[in-house]
Amino acid sequence: MLDKSIAAMISAIEIYNKPDFNYREETFSVLCINAWELLLKAKVLQLARNQVTSLYVWEHRQLKKGGKSKKRYIKNNRAGNPMSVSLYEAHRIITEDYGVKIGGVVKDNITTLAEIRDNSIHFINDDLSLAIKVQEIGTASLQNYLHLIQEWFGPVLDKYNFYLMPMAFFRGFDSVNGETLNASEKNLLKYIKTVEKDYDNDDLSDYNLSLRIDVNFKKVKSGSAIPVQITNDAKAPVVRLAEEEIMDKYPWDYDVLTTRLKKRYSDFKANNDYHQIRKSLESNEKYCHQRLYNPSNPKSGSKSYFNPNILKEFDAHYTKQS
């Protein structure tokens, strides 16, 4: 699921950066949203220990005698295959059921991009108003995606270059073919501007709603180039693979662990007793891994990640929900 998400995002970038592509913004928005949905579903799977049923839509079926059954059934699509949860339901599962924190600006960015995708049939490619907004929203979405995927799954994107080519390279901002927006496009731009107002006073951070790229062309003097060193170090992918395996084995951070314990036990409280029990288990590699913020610097800060098997240890201290 994670690999498919990355593939969709890479495809979105490649399409957008093509020198001559007449359906640029529309295709980018479709593929970018697809990448986000797959990423969120990959996170759900990670948190649910790869139980595919965690992504299924469940329903209570109608009984012949009236009413609905108490038993839940998997809801199937027209082809008879299980229906999977939506983009927004996956976000809800992650943030509410597991307590993983995702900034509101990330959800607003995804929602805005999804609105662009849903209205893509109304786009007119010769108009720059929407094209500029798509790039601003899309650039921020790529940045949000990069930071979030690194936080959740480690450095799996190190071998890729994630950027959208500035429009100044292939669009002329000095000339516009008149005001070609139709009513639907005007409503879409109005909606985007309304969402942007909520973040007008926010400073630039790792997660943003929209980002503008300013391009300035300057003559480069000799000797002013940035030095670059290329290496074929065979150890690099090995380290990256080890990091992925670690995140698979220890998918829960403190917030997720605490949320799961609250849902699991009737008498659980996040008090000093809980903290003492947790800290006593953090030294056990079976249950906890300390991940450095900067792997190349052993003295950098670290964050604790937990294996779901740690729940067995807490069972001895708390009462399970009936």
Low-confidence stretches: 172-180, 236-241
- What spatial order of strands do you see in the largest sheet? 1-2
Q: Would you tell me the overall average pLDDT?
A: 80
Determine the fraction of residues in helical runs and give it as a percent range.
40-55%
Q: Could you walk me through the main structural features you see in this protein, from its secondary elements to its overall organization?
A:
Helices cover 45% and strands 7% of the residues. The protein is built from ten helices and four strands. It is mostly helical and 322 residues long. The strands form two sheets. Strands 1-2 form a two-stranded antiparallel ribbon. Helix 1 (2-16) packs antiparallel against helix 2, helix 2 (24-47) runs parallel beside helix 3 (87-97) and helix 2 crosses helix 4.
Task: Describe the secondary-structure layout.
Blueprint lengths: L1 H15 L7 H24 L10 E5 L5 E7 L12 H11 L6 H15 L9 H26 L29 H15 L37 H15 L4 H11 L7 H10 L6 E5 L9 E5 L4 H4 L8
Antiparallel strand pairs: 1-2, 3-4
Helix pairs in contact: 1-2, 2-3, 2-4, 2-5, 4-5, 4-6
